[in-house]
Amino acid sequence: MGSRNTRGSRREVEQNPDEPRSDPSVIEDADSDDNESDLVSVLAFLLRSGQARLVRATTEGGSGIHIIHGMSSSDSDDDEDFDGDFAYHDGKAASPPVDPNPNTLVVDQSVFKQDTLLSSGQLLGGQNICSRLHMRESSLYNRPNFTSGDKAAASANYIPNNKETKAQFLQKLFCGQYSSDGTVFLSACQDQNIRLYDTTLGQFKEFRNIVARDVGWSIIDTDLSPDQQYLIYSSWSDYIHLCNIYGDYETHAALCLNPDDSRFCAFSIKFSHDNKEILAGANDAAIYVYDRGSNQRTLRVHGHEDDVNTVAFADDSSHILFSGADDGLCKVWDRRQISETCPCPVGVLAGHSDGITHIDPRGDGRHLITNSKDQTIKLWDMRKFSAEEGICRYIYSGCSTGTVVIYDALTGKITSRLSGHRSAVRDVSWHPYQKEIVSTSWDGTLGLWRYKRPHDDDEDDKEEEEDSESKQQSMGPCRRSIRLRNLLHL
């Protein structure tokens, strides 16, 4: 290495007294420059390989950037001290402010409310399940079966509230997602592993592990293809990687986006609904489209003034695209009009005071919600390009306090706050048709949330006591009891 050669040259100068001596300060400066160059190279390699990471933290000596190298079971707890604003320190993390009386005037006058009331079975008011059963059996419904709205109303009181830890790792979990039919769950961890779980018939069993390639710091985003045959992931790299989910063979293809910046990361990636294209938003303020048929990037649009954190397709047609960035804007794009020479959106949704972190379309081609760093979630009517509040029946979100927060779309109020993680919840996925939520946290755990009645805990304790008693009886008296009995009979 350079520093070793420099030290050798310095020894030669000292061993030859006849030659003029060099200025030692010049030699020391050269030695220092080479050492710094070596350190920069080593640090760059460690960061790119994921063996080290930079974390902003506030300590007693002030705030600064810390380098964390590797992770072991002994330092996993210490790592919580470097989570900065995201850590959940002994329950002292401050929760975001909550408006106790949200203004729902715009929602009350919208078509969105009527659609939501109809789909959630609330148009008939607050009828309980017994009333609905009576009306059905009395032929007052004029139909023999419950509608999807009736079923939704019956299950509305069974929101998941009990957490079961399904997996735990030494490093932070970044991504978690159910497949469209709920049979597969994907998780991505900072240890560079993507794990796939079989979730059929209520199980949660790992069936495939994929070691990610070309990872810098961590896997940043993932997505499952609509046909559930492939997954994609991104990191601090010029590539999006494509892998197969099933089969004895292995597909691990690198799809190059050919960015202009030397330091590049696709922060958000999405399959199109026909599986033919991949949409990406990146740190160079641009939106990318990759065509799987021709295996090349077909579109790059400089659409924002800052990092593009999230992208999404509006509906199954894949014609309308959404992008959200750190400039606080959500932009709407039409694939039939957009071009690299004319990067003009068909609409701009302005209303957030800070960067947008996530976009979730309703799928009706009209409504979408945006989550922002300004601690607000906004509902938008794309045809009006004006802000509203709420979404579907429930909105769910992860929080930096280690909780999962569930809101009522029509009232804007929090219906549940699920506490169970020790650090930030970075991703949340609700099963497509079961009352199950999986939370992905920086404390290294996957939490599966199901509904549990309050008195179920007492029943479980009673069952455990009965099992313990029956087990003790089947085992017979312990050796100490036998000895005491023998002594008493002496």
From TrEMBL:
Basic residues composition-biased segments: 480-490
Basic and acidic residues composition-biased segments: 9-22
WD repeat boundaries on the chain: 301-334, 349-383, 418-449
Residue numbers spanned by region Disordered: 1-35, 64-103, 454-490
SUPFAM superfamilies per the UniProt record, alphabetical: WD40 repeat-like
Keyword annotations of the record: Repeat, WD repeat
PROSITE patterns: WD_REPEATS_2, WD_REPEATS_REGION
Cellular component aspect of the GO annotation: Cul4-RING E3 ubiquitin ligase complex
UniProt cross-references to Pfam families, sorted A to Z: WD40 (PF00400)
GO BP of this protein: proteasome-mediated ubiquitin-dependent protein catabolic process
Composition skew (Acidic residues), residue ranges: 26-35, 75-84, 457-468
Compositionally biased spans, kind Low complexity: 65-74
Name of the protein in question: DDB1-and CUL4-associated factor 11
Lineage: Eukaryota, Metazoa, Cnidaria, Anthozoa, Hexacorallia
Primary gene name: DCAF11
